[in-house]
Amino acid sequence: MTKENEQIEILEELEQDEQEIRQSTEAEIVQKYDEGQARIVIQRNDFLIPNILQMVKDRDILNLAPSYQRRKRWNDTKRSHLIESLLMNIPIPPVFLYERDLAKYEVMDGQQRMDTIRAFFKNEFTLRNLKKWVELNGKHYSDLPSRIQAGLNRRGLAAVIILTESGQSSKEAMEIRQYVFERLNTGGEKLNPQEIRNCIYASPFNDILVEIARSELFTSAWDIPPKEPDEPHRASKALEKNRLYSTMADCEIVLRFFSMIDMEYFKGGMRKSLNDCMIRMKSLNKKDCELLKKQYSSLLQTAKKVYGDFIFRLPNKSGELMGRHSVPLSDAILVSIYQIGKRKASKLICVRDIIVSETKKALLSEHTYQLLVGRANTKSSIQDRILLITKIFKKALRQT
């Protein structure tokens, strides 16, 4: 299996989301509607370029959200094409703003467009690869004839604003932002669920997800290129091509562990539980988050010492644990190590041969393979696979 195919299969595992749903009565459905749940209050505005520049300048009014760090950024060609579209008065998809307080906004969708306008008017890049206005290639804003500068100043962007009235509580407001992010499909590249979480749940906890995912221990376990000096602003082609990195799937893999260590909170399917975990952890301070980072790193280190080169891997065609990596398997291993406690976990290394052998046996059995890897990510399925790995660990420990 090629690395690209392996990464595609891992992403497919992450997308599995099956809820155990309780049927609602008609009265409950009507009550939800009457109480105004999940209704969004919007307002539409048109902003001229000078208005946009002034808003971007005053961060208290408009937050372009520097914490919205995506791992895919517009290059100068794409930015130049936006400026050319403005010159030609070609319609541009609206930006979406969230009113975090009265008349104070943050960008939900359209950050790259607004930042491109800001950067061009501040002479931060030159136009390139223009198709219709080839005469302007290589020019900064200040190099343009005054007539064209004035024409650009007459252009604008449409904005859809999600008003503060949409959320009756901070939790509801956060959920609404989540829904809007997920449903947006404008001119830019569509955000995936983890990129959305990275956008709207900026916090010390979110920061440690990124730090763990780019640690040497994690990247070696998942066969991801190691951390580079200038990322995420610059990345090698090898790193950009790695789908686990470029889609932030690596961060989602880490998040899954924290969402599963207390299954009492696991409700409504994988995606909702991951979102809920981000909300719960948003209030943690940096010190608490550093402790979580050390905890995860310690568990991953134990898993690496136990499984070695076989860590999180499925059997290949020869029946050896050298096949592709598996996210559900990694969930079960890390949570099981966490649950048996630090003292017993250290003893797992002494019986690693037994553990590897028993894990291999479980994965070669059709029934237990389905239990560990093949079943959906429902709460009961997750608990079953964690229980199975825990039994393997305990059985091995009894032989010491």
- Rounded to an integer in angstroms, the radius of gyration calculated over CA atoms is 25 Å
The outline comes out as: globular
Mean pLDDT: 87
Order of helices and strands: HHEHEHEEHHEHHHHHHHHHHHHHH
Write up this protein:
The chain is α/β, with parallel strands linked by helices and 400 residues long. It has 2 domains: 1-18 and 203-400, no CATH class; 42-162, no CATH class. Helix content is 54%, strand content 7%. The protein contains 20 helices and 5 strands. A hairpin with a 2-residue loop joins strand 3 and strand 4. Helix 13 (249-260) crosses helix 14 (270-281). The mean pLDDT is 87.
Brief descriptors of the model:
5-stranded mixed β-sheet, 5 strands, single chain, alpha/beta, 20 helices, 400 residues
Layout: helices, strands, pairs:
Blueprint: H1 3-15, H2 26-34, E1 42-48, H3 49-57, E2 62-63, H4 76-87, E3 95-101, E4 104-109, H5 111-121, H6 146-153, E5 156-162, H7 170-183, H8 193-200, H9 204-213, H10 216-222, H11 237-241, H12 243-246, H13 249-260, H14 270-281, H15 286-307, H16 327-340, H17 342-347, H18 352-364, H19 366-374, H20 379-397
Parallel strand pairs: 2-4, 3-5
Antiparallel strand pairs: 1-5, 3-4
Helix pairs in contact: 3-5, 4-5, 7-8, 9-13, 9-15, 13-14, 13-16, 15-16, 16-20, 18-20, 19-20
